[in-house]
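Internal tracking record. Fields below are filled automatically when a chain is submitted to the structure queue. Please do not edit lines marked as system-generated. If the sequence contains nonstandard residues, flag them in the REMARKS field before resubmitting.
Queue: standard
Priority: normal
Entity type: single polypeptide chain
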Amino acid sequence: MGIVGVRYDQRLIHGQVATFWTNLLKVDRIVVLDEDVANNDMMKVTLRMATPQGVRSSIITKETFAANYKAGKYGTQRLFVVLRDFNIVTYLMDEGIEVTELVLGNRPDQGGDARIGRHFCVGKDEAAIIRDLAARGVKVIIKQVPQDPEVDALQAMKSAGI
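SYSTEM-GENERATED OUTPUT FOLLOWS
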């Protein structure tokens, strides 16, 4: 089946991802793309413990994922990609992996960032990447849980003056 969702969330796998999003999207595998976590055995164990029963998890680098994905290693699995680096979405697209939508979940203020959602802040660099992704045809929305109304990230950035 392939990628059924891509979510930016500083917390990676947590209650909202493990229950709401995984159930809504009927996910077979949660794929965490994060260089630091992929190389930290303790964090990997913690995230695997947060993964719902019956759902597989991969906690790997973007390069490993791109190679596996292009090689067909995930077969017909429904993949939910979770990350905390906007540049990874750009990388995946540059590798020929289709990303049609990016859901922004949680990102606290990292010092001088603009709040564009109840739980989401961006700096100028992140805002530029969001604009680039939108220009490339990616629908970028802010949505904490599936029941929340969709908020267009570009409109929210404009309203926040960023």
